[in-house]
Specification:
The protein has 264 residues and is mainly α. InterPro entries: DUF2189.
């Protein structure tokens, strides 16, 4: 009996099938994101205002402690995908020809889907880890402490001896890259299908490995537009975040294959 049990293997999660797409599809995702935003502008604007207000609150609380602010704002971008769950639901409803409004968003959040909650907690933990790492790098590497954006620019970014800013970027990239790879299609997938968090993450990684150039371009577009939003004192986020949220849904639909007969 014990020998038989020793040969029993537990089932392992396997990623869903993904497809390779042309790199220029990224701009089609943006165009479709804009179209969804125009079809449900109230939902998009409310999401954008909420995210902009949250970013503004971070900036207000940490403005004179820029050693925290630099990491906090970038960590905010790391958790933004889970905050866009309602936008994915609206894009799905629009695709199905259903009513897409605040009720659609409320239905998603009220469900308290444990998988989405767990993924959100994971992203929050990773974002917090980056805030702590960023603060440690800046406080330990620069004396006296960096307290203002001008301090960060002059004594970190434009420091004559250099090095610290490059290290800060490298550490941030090493933390952000796996987060992006794990979440680029995972959250829309969790919303759309009854799969485990593990399968969603594995599928997201598989999509990245199948489309390295396309999704590297997509990451650059997301980062550039997000920085544009941050650089306008958060006002740009009011438009940037809903468009990127809707576009992410269309990226997922392009990249993850649906089995024949599977409902939209």
């Amino acid at each position: 009996m014990s020998d038989a049990r020793s040969h029993v293997r537990l089932p392992t999660e396997r990623p869903l099938r993904v497809r390779k797409v042309h790199s220029l599809r990224t701009f089609l995702w943006l165009a479709r994101g804009w179209s969804d935003f125009m079809d449900a502008p109230l939902v998009g604007l409310l999401h954008g205002i909420a995210m902009g207000a949250f970013g503004g609150l971070i900036m207000f609380l940490a403005w004179d402690r820029f050693w925290v602010l630099a990491g906090a704002l970038s960590a905010f971008l790391m958790v933004a995908p889970i905050l866009s769950t309602g936008l994915y639901a609206v894009s799905r409803a629009l695709l199905r020809g259903e009513d897409a409004g605040l009720a659609t968003v409320w239905q998603v959040w009220a469900s308290l889907d444990g998988r989405l909650v767990r993924f959100g907690v994971l992203l929050t933990a990773l974002g917090t880890g980056w805030v702590v790492s960023s603060a440690a790098l800046i406080t330990l590497g620069v004396k006296p402490p960096v307290t203002t954006p001008n301090d960060f620019l002059m004594r970190v970014v434009l420091a004559p001896d250099g090095g610290l800013f490059e290290i800060w970027l490298i550490v941030g990239g090493l933390m952000a890259a796996p987060v992006f790879a794990s979440s680029v299609v995972a959250i829309p997938l969790l919303l759309d299908r009854r799969v485990s968090v593990q399968k969603a993450v594995l599928t997201s990684w598989k999509a990245v490995m199948a489309n390295p150039i396309c999704l590297s371009l997509w990451a650059a577009i997301v980062m550039s537009l997000s920085l544009l939003g941050l650089g306008t004192l958060m006002f740009g986020l009011i438009l940037v975040m809903p468009i990127l949220g809707h576009a992410t849904w269309h990226a997922y639909r392009d990249l993850v294959v649906r089995d024949p007969g599977e409902a939209d």
